[in-house]
From TrEMBL:
Keywords: Cell shape, Cell wall biogenesis/degradation, Chaperone, Cytoplasm, RNA-binding. Forms a complex with KhpA. It holds the Pfam family R3H. SMART domains: Jag_N (SM01245), R3H (SM00393). The keyword Cell wall biogenesis/degradation applies. One of its GO terms (biological process) is peptidoglycan biosynthetic process. This is RNA-binding protein KhpB. It comes from Macrococcoides canis. PANTHER family: PROTEIN JAG (PTHR35800), RNA-BINDING PROTEIN KHPB (PTHR35800:SF1).
Length: 247
């Protein structure tokens, strides 16, 4: 595994910094919190958070190939197939194991939410072979989401890290509640389009407020479709921000 340690104000900031520097997604790394950090009192005793990100090696499947042994003493030169091909793990078995791991992750998230003092339930949806969505339902949705999704994002990091400990391979765990992810995506896309028009009209760069790596990525992808606009990020986490500029 390729491992790197990152330090920042909060655990989430340190993780986002690591993901951007290593150019990977959460599903591609195992995350270990070395130090959760401390806020301190009036700045006294404050400690930054420290995390270690380890890139998960792709699962290497080794097939045991059999070599037919010719029995020379036989008149018919019959082939001895005493060495058989080692059977691969059944596809259904892998699928069932993955589903069991996802169920464990869902239960893990629900335990954390309950410990926060909120009643909630969750359903699992398999978007495709590489992405699983755990959709949470709760009367306290706004509190579980947090300001600009900070609480939900932190829960998602924990869920992804737990899943990576259970399973090999690349699978993204996405936590959602009341369709927040799609609403946030639409908000960011509309904001990006509006600000791109401003950049073209004024001829001046437009700078956004700091936002997480994956949100900047949504805006980068949206504006990549516009020919006379370019985007780039500036600053360091957790204060890294997006800039739109007319070409």
């Amino acid at each position: 595994m390729l491992e790197q340690t990152f330090i920042d104000v909060t655990v989430e900031d340190a993780i986002n910094k690591g993901l951007e520097i290593m150019n990977v997604s959460e599903s591609q790394v195992k995350i270990e919190v070395l130090n959760p950090g401390k806020k301190g009192i009036f700045g006294i005793g404050r400690q930054n958070a420290e995390v270690k990100l380890s890139i998960i090696d792709p699962e290497v499947k080794r097939e045991k190939t059999s070599i037919p042994i010719i029995n020379e003493s036989s008149d018919n030169n019959r082939v001895d197939m005493s060495e058989e091909i080692a059977p691969e793990e059944d596809i259904d078995t892998k699928s069932n194991r993955k589903q069991e791991s996802v169920e464990l992750v869902k239960d893990y998230v629900m335990q954390i939410v309950a410990a926060m003092g909120y009643e909630a339930s969750a359903e699992i949806f398999y978007k495709n072979n590489s992405e699983v969505i755990i959709n949470i339902s709760s009367a306290e949705a706004s509190r579980i989401i947090g300001k600009r999704g900070q609480v939900l994002n932190s829960l998602q990091v924990l869920a992804q890290n737990y899943f990576n400990q259970l399973e090999k391979g690349f699978t993204t765990i996405t936590l959602d509640i009341e369709n927040y992810r799609e609403k946030r995506r639409e908000t960011l896309q509309n904001l990006a389009l509006n600000m791109s028009k401003k950049a073209i009209a004024t001829g001046k760069p437009v700078k956004f407020e700091p936002m997480p790596n994956y949100e900047r990525k949504i805006m980068h992808q949206m504006l990549a479709k516009i020919e006379n606009i370019e985007t780039y990020s500036e600053g360091r986490e957790p204060h890294r921000y997006l800039v739109i500029r007319a070409r």
